[in-house]
Design goal:
Largest sheet: 5 strands, parallel
Radius of gyration: 18 Å
Number of domains: 1
Helix content: 25-40%
Order of helices and strands: EHEHEHEEEHHEHEHEHEE
CATH class: Alpha Beta
């Protein structure tokens, strides 16, 4: 039995961004016994190619694309992407995906799967140290101080409506294979002495209503839902999907895949033991992976 970790990156989020490195990750995945699914950030839409390195401090730069694909040519491995949904740039994102797919195919590199995620939300607070040229969005999840200021500016109810609304729009694009980390919005969340969320306690009912609505929409789509364990290493301290929401997704018949969202080779397969217990509780014995963007079921049970 081989488990597919279908959310792996080739470099950490640090500035300046280092070169992509595939070999260390493949070595770590082999040693840990996981099938690696690369899901790297492609270049952003043109107006977002800003900052000292024209990458918003994290995304792939145009001059890196050829070397990036050459890594996969040399390794004989498929490639995959994580697209950051940005409202108003849907057509450009589709064009970027088409371009990246064509460039991969020209080199004989298959595209395994594509995750759609929400990292940008409507807002006008300062989230970076450089000029944003009028962009009315906020990258809210890389710095808790930015998150707090955005939450204060927007309000909890409006912020979660923005977040889950963007996920609905992402699904509606009919472009991606997987919805990534459905509860990333809770990255910096933790519980107070009463066991309540320090950020969303007053909107928990609305939060669950909106999250369930996204899952219901996924059930009507050909997409899968990711069980992402990166939240275990954030303040949240658990995967970016609760047991309750996973149970709801299973009951709704939504396919699920596993991803560690690793940005370091030593994190490949991180949190799988927790995911296995969650799947047992939810009564799900099969996960999905992707090959040439086709969903493939497999049993994770020994």
């Amino acid at each position: 039995m081989t488990i597919h970790d279908d959310h792996l990156h080739l470099r950490p989020h640090v500035a300046p961004t280092p070169p992509h490195e595939l070999a260390p990750l493949l070595k770590a995945a082999g040693a840990a016994g996981f099938a690696p699914g690369i899901r790297e950030h492609p270049p952003l839409p043109g107006p977002y190619r800003i900052g000292p390195h024209s990458d918003y401090d994290y995304a792939m730069r145009e001059h890196e694309v050829e070397r990036f694909f050459d890594l996969f040519v040399a390794a004989g491995r498929p490639v995959g992407f994580e697209f950051d949904y940005i409202a108003g740039f849907e057509e450009e994102q589709k064009n970027i995906l088409d371009d990246m797919t064509a460039r991969a195919q020209s080199k004989g590199v298959p595209v395994s799967g594509v995750i759609g995620s929400v990292h940008f939300l409507p807002g006008d607070i300062v989230d970076v140290e450089y000029e944003k040229s009028g962009l009315q969005t906020v990258m809210w999840d890389l710095d808790e101080n930015v998150f707090r200021r955005h939450l204060k500016n927007r309000g909890a109810a409006r912020m979660i409506r923005d977040y889950f609304g963007a996920q609905r729009e992402l699904i509606g694009m009919k472009t991606f294979d997987v919805l990534g980390h459905i509860e990333l919005i809770r990255k910096f969340d933790t519980k107070d002495s009463n066991g309540d969320s320090i950020y969303f306690a007053d909107v928990e009912d609305l939060y669950m209503e909106l999250a369930r609505g996204v899952i219901e929409l996924l059930a009507e789509s050909p997409m899968a839902l990711e069980i992402n364990t990166a939240g275990m290493f954030a303040k949240l301290g658990r995967p970016y999907i609760s047991q309750e929401l996973l149970n709801y997704a299973v009951e709704a018949g939504v396919p699920t895949c596993y991803g560690s969202d690793s940005h370091l080779p030593e994190r490949v397969g991180a949190g799988w033991d927790i995911v296995a217990r969650m799947l047992e509780r939810a009564g799900r014995e099969r996960l999905v992976t992707f090959d040439n963007r086709k969903m493939i079921e497999y049993s994770w049970v020994k």
